[in-house]
Write a structure and sequence with these properties.
Blueprint (H helix, E strand, L loop, with lengths): L5 E8 L11 H9 L1 E9 L5 H6 L6 H16 L3 E5 L13 E3 L2 E4 L2 E5 L2 E5 L7 H5 L1 H27 L7 H8 L1 H20 L4 E4 L6 E5 L2 E5 L8 E7 L2 E6 H30 L1
Parallel strand pairs: 1-2, 2-3, 3-5, 7-8, 8-10
Antiparallel strand pairs: 1-11, 4-5, 6-7, 9-10, 11-12
Helix pairs in contact: 1-3
Length: about 280
């Protein structure tokens, strides 16, 4: 039986952090395997070079499998795959820009819609710590890894008690005044960048905070991450964007499967009726 797929014009994902123990590689691989799109934009931090420098053995066969699926998309499905460099995969800098077949590496991308242009960037260029104090950014990255490690142990306990996953780090980001203030400044800077570049919208990642909102005249979209949020930006029709998470995706896939099964059942009934 043909695999059920969801069809979109364009899909944007970011911050998978392949090579780290908290990358939700099985989920994002399943997501990729069940979509058809004209263009897939990987908006930075797909591979976590910072973590792999410290622990190269962290790269798993499942991570290779995900990369293989990306290449299959570009090869067999004729999907344009655009990989934009992030700060954790900055090792790609020396190759930019690079294109081979339907696969392209770059540092930014202009997405055309009937409503106007959307600037697509990872967004680390607007993080003062990442740009000017790399040692502090590295330290912050290690601190985040420790927090995620605590999350793993805490949620194993929650599973044992029959409870759902709960993100401690997301709670901290939403409650700590400094973190909330940083996100606000980050979004404002990207809004200004979009205006300066003559774009009606901006699509970014980097801060692991998924968002879809209007900021003045600029449509601000952040694709979130595949560490905790498990989110993506999808374009169903030219210029029609939605922020979806993995649960949304599952529900949409189930609905599409139900629709296909219903059509198949209806077709079988018609054949039987004609035979009678």
């Amino acid at each position: 039986m043909k695999k059920t797929r969801l069809r979109f014009k364009t899909v944007f994902i970011s911050d998978i952090h392949l090579g780290t123990p908290d990358a939700k590689v099985e989920e994002v691989t399943r997501f990729i395997r069940h979509i058809d799109c004209e263009r897939l934009v990987l908006n930075g931090d797909i591979i976590d070079g910072w973590y792999l420098k410290r622990k190269s053995s962290a790269w798993k066969p499942a991570h290779t499998k995900f990369v293989r699926h990306l290449l299959k998309l570009a090869e067999k499905k004729a999907t344009e795959v655009i990989y934009l460099r992030g700060n954790h995969d900055e090792m790609l800098d020396s190759f930019l820009p690079l294109a081979f077949g339907s696969f392209r590496l770059d540092d930014e991308y202009i997405h055309e819609t009937p409503q106007g242009k959307y600037l697509v960037v990872h967004g680390d260029g607007f993080d003062h710590v990442t740009m000017n104090h790399k040692w502090a950014a590295g330290l912050g990255s290690v601190g985040y890894e420790v927090l995620l490690r605590f999350n793993r142990f805490y949620n194993k306990f929650r599973v044992w008690r029959g409870k759902e996953y709960y993100s401690v780090s997301k709670l901290i980001k939403s409650k700590v005044k400094g973190a909330v203030s940083f996100v606000g400044r980050y979004e404002e800077q990207l809004e200004k960048l979009a205006k300066a570049r003559g774009c009606v919208g901006i699509i970014c990642g980097h801060i692991h905070t998924a968002e879809d909102k209007q900021m003045g005249s600029v449509h601000y979209l952040n694709s979130g991450d595949w560490v905790e949020s498990l989110t993506a930006i999808v374009e169903s029709e030219p210029g029609e964007f939605s922020l979806i998470d993995y649960a949304d995706f599952d529900a949409m896939l189930e609905a599409e499967q139900f629709r296909r099964d219903s059509e198949l059942s209806g077709a079988k009934l018609e054949v039987v009726a004609e035979a009678v």
